[in-house]
Amino acid sequence: MGAFGNYPYNPKPVIDFDKLNTVSVIVNFNAGGKIKPEYFRYINSDESEQTIKIDTVKFTRDKGECISFCCMFTNHGRQQEVILTFYVIECIWIIE
Fold this sequence. Notes:
- It is a single chain.
- The protein is mainly beta.
- 0% of the residues lie in helices and 57% in strands.
- It has one domain (17-95).
- The chain has a six-stranded antiparallel beta barrel with strand order 1-2-3-4-5-6.
- Strand 2 (35-43) and strand 3 (49-62) form a beta hairpin.
- It is globular, with a radius of gyration of 17 Å.
- The termini are far apart.
- The mean pLDDT is 86.
């Protein structure tokens, strides 16, 4: 019997950030230290960069090791949704 009784020990998988779509994000902090994404920079397939202003954050999910933000932005007059996730310890943003 292991340290966790009859439950097998399954260590948390290591995330390979090189395989994820990392992005640069500009954020604001409120008085309580909570972050709110304002802009993100996306690199297109042709290597050009596009800076996108976030119109609003629909909701936030704090998952402990990371925080996901469901964001709305305007693209050519149409509202679109994107999930931006911030990995706290690594200080890395990914786009989902």
